[in-house]
Amino acid sequence: MKKTMSCILSFLPTVLIVLGMITLIIITGFQNSGFETGVFVTILQILALMVEMAGWIMGFVMMIIYIVKTIKNKNFSVGIKILWCALLFYLSVFLFAILPVYWFVVVRKE
Are 52 and 21 contacting, i.e. CB atoms less than 8 angstroms apart? Predict the structure, then answer.
């Protein structure tokens, strides 16, 4: 159960961020094309922004957890620890796509 939950938490930030972006792009397209948008669309925009922010926050938390997990792993050499910490930190800019990679390579084998 713990590995299943960590797998879901590794993929969830990327899914939430992409879902929020797609929703906001679609809403912006409707607004720019001249359709009348009401209160419902405004509420939908706020919800999409909240979902996207939840994805970013969750991604940062998971990045920190995985960096700490890498540093505490006694099976890794110093070079591998530095490599994984750098990858987790720098590649988190790209919608946290490194989190599922880390899960498949490191966490799944534990």
Answer: yes
